[in-house]
Amino acid sequence: MFTGLIEDVGTLAQLQRTQKEVRLTITSPVICADLAIGDSVSVNGACLTVVQFNERQFTVLATAETLRRTALSQLTISTRVNLERALRVNGRLGGHIVLGHVDGVGRIRSMTHEGESVRLEVTAPNQLHPWLVPKGSIAVDGISLTIADLLPDGFWVALIPHTLGATTLQYRRPGDLVNLETDIIGKYVARLMGISIPGGPDPIPDPQSRGPLTADLSLDVLRKHGFA
Q1: Residue range(s) occupied by CATH 2.40.30.20 in the chain
Q2: Distance CA 156, CA 196 (A)
């Protein structure tokens, strides 16, 4: 589990392709300072497992499934990537709950300066639109951001100077692909309410009616399904 608050911007130093997988070696002394084999690291929003590391670089393996679902296949040597180690249980959740399980790949449509901030517009795959909520959370390349408002084909967010300077968004341009992960809480609530989302899991059946759970969401419903 991650927070979407980027710890470091690393550099892709080596890229080894096999028939179906890719080994990525990334330079980041900051991340390597507290790392172990088997640890999870978010790389541009994709949760990957550390298989090798030293004091300056670490290596992760991107499987065929990961490459199909993310924009990691577009990476090249010297590309800068957003990095975050897994959340400590006793840490602050400064962003939102990010699992590192990418839902789809979006595309930057425009980046427009509005005073000191930047308006970033992103197109999103149709199957993600039901999960997009104005003022809700979304992870873009692993960065926890707040959706300012929806667009017919996606959404836009306002980037403050700190976010630009501390992440790879400072290097992004219109047309670039980005990994998108929608809010996991919204997915759980939708499934509990019996809302069927294209590409998502089937609604939870109501044991009384043997159909989707359509009762109003309440504390009793949440307790019944282990949320309270």
Answers
A1: 8-85, 104-182
A2: 25
* pLDDT tens sequence across 10-26: 999 999 988 789 999 99
Give the number of residues written for the chain: 228
State both tokens at 46.
């994709």
Spelled out in words, what is the top-level CATH class assigned to the domain 104-182?
A: mainly beta
Q: Tell me: the pLDDT tens digits for 170-189?
A: 999 999 999 999 999 888 88
Q: Which of 154, 125, 121, 148 is nearest to 136 (CA)?
A: 148
Q: Is 0.85 surpassed by the pTM of this model? A: no
Fold assignment, 8-85:
Elongation Factor Tu (Ef-tu); domain 3 (2.40.30)
With CA atoms as reference, report the closest residue to 102 among 2, 170, 224, 189. 2
Among the residues of 14-80, which ranges form H helices? 29-32, 64-69
Given a contact cutoff of 8 angstroms between Cβ atoms, the answer to whether 75 and 81 are in contact is yes
CA 124, CA 83: separation in Å to the nearest integer? 22
